[in-house]
Amino acid sequence: NAGVMQNPRHLVRRRGQEARLRCSPMKGHSHVYWYRQLPEEGLKFMVYLQKENIIDESGMPKERFSAEFPKEGPSILRIQQVVRGDSAAYFCASSPPIGNWKEAFFGQGTRLTVV
Amino acid sequence: RKEVEQDPGPFNVPEGATVAFNCTYSNSASQSFFWYRQDCRKEPKLLMSVYSSGNEDGRFTAQLNRASQYISLLIRDSKLSDSATYLCVAFTGGGNKLTFGTGTQLKVEL
Hints:
A: seven-stranded mixed beta sheet, four-stranded antiparallel beta sheet, 49% strand, B: mainly beta, six-stranded mixed beta sheet
């Protein structure tokens, strides 16, 4: 749904650089979720955030990955010192305050390529 | 064992055929289930929810069997535009997150 905006749509980084992926939720949505889709695999949950809070980060790799959803501005997924294995599509979804998945929508994703 | 398992396919069917996809889930605490559709690595989009009583939306019928932890999707009179990957999804309320299967690829041919 065009309401969830992710940018950039495509991102190329060299090994060792940092990648910053941004997600602006739909208007009125205060819950944000990040998912990663590796080539030929399903979507894997990474992290669930509400404004200024990380609710569940059980899917985040222990190192190099971090996420935030500040009071103002988009949610940011940050990957430090990227490696080739980080190449994937990263999707963000947002839902209303009650966290109803029937009213959740995904953004178009950011395709990260590490060269 | 994966939490949500699907046959990856591909299912190649002629236009007008009826095709059925199956899915099993392992987490008995899963509360709700959905089928999503994903086109050419674009974002997944909600196709329909799945209820124990079965539910129908036009040519699509979804069914949930909690005892067997089994979910199905039936597509009747398939169209070329139905070609996509269909994702079986379980929702766990405690974590408020969706767990996706790897998807079943459908190709509808003339």
